User: Fold this.
Amino acid sequence: MRFSQFLTEDVNVHLYHIEEDIIRNGLVGAKSAVRYLSGLVDMLGGSSNAKVRATVKWDGAPAIVCGKDPLNGKFFVGTKAVFNTKTPKVNYTFADIDKNHPAGGLNKKLKYAHRYLEKLDIPGIVQGDLMFTPGDLKPERIDGEPFITFTPNTITYAVQKNSKLYKQVTTAKIGIVFHTAYDGDSLDNMNATFGVDVSNFGGDGSVWYDDAYYKDASGATFTENEVRILKTSIAQVDNLAEKVPMPLWMKLSTNKEFVQYMLQFINKNVRGGKLVQEPKQMMQKYLNYYRDVQAQAKEKLKTDKAKDKRDQMVAIMGKLFAENQEGVENIIKIHNQTVILKNQILKKINSVQATKQFIKTDQGYQVTNPEGYVAIDNDGQAVKLVDRLDFSRANLNAQKQWAAE
Assistant:
């Protein structure tokens, strides 16, 4: 396995949290979680046979799509709006940028991107997150140490003065991290692949660019004992998944009501700062949540028939859980243990970073971790790895700066 940090989600691929797959896809999702966790432990244990890669989520903005249009061979830049089916916003020239993105901030960023990214030898079409453009780099002292900093979105990245990366960043006009490659015969018919090989992009130093793959320059891998302990815990999750009756896995993963409202319930717990709870208690809280949601919906209905249907839905969900209490509790245990193992893996990954990352507060800079990662298997399937209590809680309510443009 290899590991890479994810930057933004791709236009053609929606990523789910590794633990969400258990709710959405039942036993298949549980087995998938086990496979990803085991592969990541192999990777972080230094195994050359690891079957999972990982990419890092850099908190850049806006997302930039660029390359040569397969229909005419012309270089273009744009946001993910280049893939709009009705009105694609593809920018071959500055005039196109003025037409498609007249707003000041994004307009300026796209012009810088066009001017400098055209100098790279980019095969096909790639997507990355813009990290800085002229005027974004600031010299600062943090805890008495000199850094160059840039804050493309929420996180401030700090590069230590006199480091190799410092020289590269301060020489460049713009910075970007590429994370997704696209392949197809036209912009409206593209397939996305996580990971970009930037080794042959070339350039004259005016662009600082990198791929998003996780790089461990420190050798801070799991010890043999840590690998053994983690693999034992992962095997326990796998065994527990086998104990849940297949009919129950099927009933829940194909029950749209359960999947929809369980995921909403989990997000509610994230916002409340408590994701993992004792299984029996979590099961009852979910039933209470489901009952309350249906009661609120019932108040807006006019006919007795429609209201009775809501009551029936609550009764059916309660009966399903009552008749399968042990199995439902085990599924919640699998979900929770996956979260715990994921966070142990994230702790190890976060211990090795080329840049320091901070959140600016009223009291100054507070050290933070990357927003998250994407784990990618050898078949190109991928899941998100995020410490949700650190980042997702804020992201659920966040207004993305470039979303409307």
Q: What stands out?
A: The chain has two domains: 2-57+219-395, 63-211. Residues 325-350 form the longest helix (26 residues). The CA atoms of residues 153 and 388 lie 18 Å apart. The longest strand covers residues 174-186.
